[in-house]
Amino acid sequence: MAGVHPFIPKDLILPDYVPIVLSQSTILGVYTSASLLVVSFVWILAGRFPKISKVDKILMCWWVFTGLTHMILEGYFVFTPEFFKQKSPTYLAEVWKEYSKGDSRYVGRDSAVIAVEGITAVLEGPASILAAYAIATRKPYSHLLQIAIALGQLYGTAVYFITSYLEGDNFAASTYYYYFYYVVMNSFWIWIPSLIVIRSWKKICAAVHIQEQKRSKTR
Asked: Where does the record locate the signal sequence feature (predicted)?
């Protein structure tokens, strides 16, 4: 039986759809609180490592935050295809039903979205945690890894927006949900990875330049 739902398009078929139980404020409140808790913990933990700058602390917080978001939140979406049918929905199921008001391709199980989120959850999630570890322990591959993940995030976000545009870009329940969920919330995975790529690229170039100077002096 096709359930009545608040998503666009209205003719989207969602058999046995179970309406959202939690309010928007509750869903966002829990997510914000959990995120702040994670960031605070990482910030304190980062302070225990020697010679960690404030920028590196911020980057560690970002990588752990985005890594857990990829693995837990997006991983749940990928591996729980019938989340909208749950009679006793979990918090994560409620999150995706709420977010689907901004992009119904999630509740509609769009293949492009599943592919992007699957790669993000399985590859970029663990890699993001590794990036935080690499920064803390000053691994030589730190900046290269950060560039690789950030470029992956930028590519995934580009595919996400482009496929929506090519399919008509009409998946939001209202203008409010379109801009708040679809545009604003996803924008963080555009400008933050972009800044990381620029910073790490400069760091790598500077390191190579120093090595070249040392080689020139020893000749």
From this structure: none
Q: Quick check: 97 and 176 in contact, CB under 8 A?
A: no
For residue 200, what are the contacts with CB-CB under 8 A and spacing of at least 6? 143, 144, 146, 147, 150
Task: Please report, for the chain, how many H helices and E strands are present, in that order.
Answer: 9, 0
Q: Is residue 15 part of a domain?
A: no
Contact 96, 106 (CB under 8 A): yes
The pTM score is 0.93
User: Residue 206, class by beta-carbon neighbours within 10 Å (0-12 exposed, 13-18 middle, 19+ buried)?
Assistant: exposed
**Chain centroid to CA 125: how far?**
8
Which backbone phi and psi does 2 adopt, to 5 degrees? -80, 125
Per-residue pLDDT tens over the stretch 96-111:
999 999 999 999 999 9
In a domain, 37, yes or no: yes
Inform me whether the pLDDT recorded for 189 exceeds 80: yes
Q: Name residue 13's amino acid.
A: I
Number of domains in the chain: 1
